[in-house]
Request: fold
Amino acid sequence: MTGLPNRRHCLAWGLASAAGLGLRAASASDLVVRRSANLPTAARRVVALEFLLAEMLVAVGRPPVGMSDPALYPGWINVQTERLANVADVGTRQQPSLEAIARLKPDLILGLTYRHAPLFDVFESIAPTVLLDFAPEPPRTRLDSAFALQRMIGEFVGRDAEAVRAEAEVSAGFDRDAARLAAAGRSNRRLVVLQELAGLDTYWVFTGDSLSAGLASRLGLRFWPSERSREGVRPLTSEELLGLDDADVMLVSMTGPNVSLDAKTRSAAWQRVPALRSGRVGLIERNIWNFGGPASALRLSNRITNLMLRAPAAG
Amino acid sequence: MTVLAAERPTLVRPIPRLRIGLPIAAFVALVALARLWPTWHALTTAPGPVEAEAARFLLWELRLPRVLAGLAAGAAFGMAGALFQAVTRNPLAAPDLLGVTAGAQVGVLIGLTVPALAGFAGPPLLFVCGLGAASLALLAAGGWRAPPLRLLLAGGACALLLSAVLTVMLALFEQDIAGLALWSGGALYQPGADGLVEAACWLLPPLVALPFLVRGLDALALGDDAATGIGVAVLPVRFAGVITATALTAFAVALAGPIGFVGLIAPNLVRAAGIRRLTALIVLSALVGGGLLLAADGVVAGLGFSAGLSTAVATALVGTPLLLILVVRGQLLSPPDRTEAAASTRVASLAVVAPALGLALAALSAFGLAWGETWLAPARWVTAFAGGDNEAALILSIRGPRIAVAAIAGMMLAASGVVLQSVVRNALAGPELLGVTQGAALATLVGLLTWPLIGRPETFALALVGGLATLGLILLINRRRRFAPLPVALTGLAFSGLFAALTYAVIVETSAQPARALIWLVGGTYGRAWPDAVALLPWLLVSLPALALLSRPLDLLTLGEDAAAGLGLNVALLRALGLGLAAMLASAAVAIVGPLAFVGLLTPHLARLVGFHAHGDRLPVAMLLGALLTIGADILGRVALAPKEIPAGALTALIGAPYFLWLMSRGRRGTQ
Reply:
């Protein structure tokens, strides 16, 4: 939009330089920003302080003993929720209850750098702690990070083999979806993924480093916008969609299923969006799979593929 | 010019209306044209019918509605400000300062999180919430006749309370409201003309009501008795005035987001230009407000900042200097305001009260160590100390430092409040209403977001730089006015507003996930460890002798500046030392616990309420009370919704604000 460096660039630069080595590559060890010196060889009582960490622990067959906001997990991720039935609630993701964590006598605490960096010392006084990051270096995406994180978590809990197998399953799922798209002649179409927000016709669009972008390349699709951002999203208004003639737009809802796509796209601007006119806008149920792990990515892949196949053939 | 303008309309000739109105109208038209010109140009030079059609859509359905939305919202804010000011006869009454904007914001959040209310979301819900906030502020300040400063502070306390509510909701429903922070910065994007037309329906009722109100409100400027004398029903007119102004605000907030600052700036600018008559004032305020918002939105769009985000920041950046110029030039002065909070006779001597409070502090701390999801009887503390009970030791190491940090920070904030109130000679000042806390918080937050692994010394440095710089600016601006209470309070409020807007901008620009920053902004003791307490303690210890030394001179200062100087006191030096000490105490506390609200504002009053006026007595009592309040908030926040944590800052605001407002209304009755 502009050639001038704005605040976002300056702050991004500051953050990148501060994080330093941690962001250089998306190989497993570099996704760890802080970790205790001595970790158990195979942790058995793990506390997960973010949804995606709990999801990955389930995927490798070692569900956490405690997690943040388990009551909200079904509403936002809902992948293998039944395997988290007995997990203890340790409070919110941002300010988990230290006492609740301590009571569980964990042997490993998994958190995220951007939320929990100031709490590292406190966590470590309770149990060995690893703080993870999933900002990928170009040209990698958050999908690559998700796979790398899941493999690493598999190692932490001594379930390396399960992690490899889970990854293979998800990859096979992507391949099946890619094949379905190719068979219907939908390969190479341009994918745009939006997250609905509270504002009037204002959205987050997932950018070139997002999990969706990684998914697009696995599904044989092109992705818009290709530029990267620090957290995988940037704001967008419906006006920007007017110029996209050949895109399939996936809108991730923030409301319940009672509000239809028609109700969400009533504005004059939406009515002129080429994708809507040609029936290529799909509504995906409320979720945060874009901020989840490989299993979330597979859910997202299935939804996108189904919605794209439902849209009329390219004309 | 130095008197509340509306009070003496007869002295000023109402001639310059046209001379001023025309240039303003021309300016607004010019800004609007500049905004529309590129699209118009594209339309006229379109090479084919397809391009022309697209350009036509762009012009008529996107650009023009956005410009009109900016104009309408700005105008509504401007008119609302002019109305509030006429109703209260207070040049500083504005949607923001009365808490109406914050109330409307709570309305937006309720509409989002309570699906059952979705049908009423939009202007009606915003109107109800805004009206509630305005009533609260007016009630606490003591009704229509409240002096400007009192109303200002009641509104400020109201706004602080509502923003605490807002932040707690944001923190608890983190995912549901992702992106709401984006809207909080002001969003004028209009995806078509229809939506604007629909929204405009809500502008009609207040606009229709306006002409019927003007005569009555104009008469109010003469004073209640004079107005009654010429047959104006004073109470109904005021009532209708507040409702109309709130409806205007609700419309504007629904359309453009919480940019209520415009409502303060626009009428005061118009008044500074010599306009006195209400009709002219309202019309011109609408024009100026519309122009301001449009220009701010244009700057934002032109520079390509994130979608709609920075309109509030741009408005604050433009508006704050204007406001400060008015302060410096003394055009916002008003009659002296004697607002002393309730004074009462001493309940007992310090020798009784201080040990009693100390005992209460020890008891509350012990209770805090024991109470929680796991009850820890004192017997287990002993075994834990002896190394025999690892679980108890672990839990004590979580609860202990939080209580210690709460106690130290509470004392520091309370001491800061006492000194500040005496030096500024404003019984209702506090570090959070003077912008010192917000300045320290902004600097610290930028540091925390930019370098997530930042250490404690750097945090202290940033907080001190932010807090002291804010104080320095306030002092610099008010130097020539000899730190008169109203200009100082107003300068502080202006800075608070600016910093709040900047803080939101920093949060939204650095991260799409604002929860961590928002929670820090409420202030709290969560996750604080022994090193935090150890780092904070020296600041308190160093300031204790200074406080002891200053307490006697501060007593003299309360006798009045001249009396103090007559007794051989170097007033300027005392002020500088006192303000520096107060700012240091508040800033250092902010570095560890964040901008905890109301402790510094409230505890000095509590100390006075139990009868301690001399600083030598009041300081220790206030500090002990500050520690008690903060520890109480810490324990309650940890246990109330366990395992969910409520930030202690939210609790001090939720406990402190109602009490403060009650205290204000009580103090008023006491003086009447």
In short: The longest strand of chain A covers residues 190-196. Chain A touches chain B through 67 residues (CB under 8 Å). Chain A has two domains: 22-158, 184-309. The domain at 22-158 of chain A is CATH 3.40.50.1980 (Rossmann fold).
